[in-house]
Amino acid sequence: MLTDKLSLTGALTISKNGEVVQKINNLVVTAGKQLVAANLQGGTVNPINYMALGTGTTDSQADPTDTALETEIDRNALTTAGGTVNGAVVTYEATWVPGDGTGAITEAGLFTTETDGTMLARTIFPVVNKGADDTITVVWDVTIS
């Protein structure tokens, strides 16, 4: 008997002013898994092109049924549209410059479009305070195994 499982896992690194301040795993949500399946089927390809930050604090962890951040404050285009592929890892990166996306950041997500769109993954983490003069860079790896 032959069995094989396809798994999507992810982890992200948050840097503030060039210094790593958070490393955390993420949840690939149900809508994200359905997006991957639809793209494998050969339909319209909907790449992940945006990353969002939020300040939601109600949930203690991401839920598979999540389709949006709890309290999104800003969404930016990825440094490289669709991310970059190295073997079975897709890396997504986005940067928030001074004056952009300021606040007590506690959640992040990957999306297909600039507004709304399908969310691939979400994570919740201890607060990262982004002041008006700070730069935040998030590098998010999604591994297919």
Describe this structure in words.
The chain is mainly β and 145 residues long. The protein has one domain (8-144). It is 8% helix and 49% strand. It contains one helix and nine strands, in the order ββαβββββββ. It has one helix at residues 30-41, and strands at 8-16, 19-28, 50-54, 72-77, 84-86, 89-96, 103-111, 119-130, 136-144. It has a nine-stranded antiparallel β-sheet with strand order 4-3-7-8-2-1-9-6-5. The chain is globular.
Q: Are there runs of 5+ residues with pLDDT below 50, and where?
A: none
Amino- and carboxy-terminal Cα gap = 20 Å
Described by the principal axes of the CA atoms, the overall outline is globular
Helix and strand pattern: EEHEEEEEEE
| Alpha carbon gyration radius | 15 Å
Task: Briefly say what this structure is.
This protein has 145 residues and is mostly beta strands. Helices cover 8% and strands 49% of the residues.
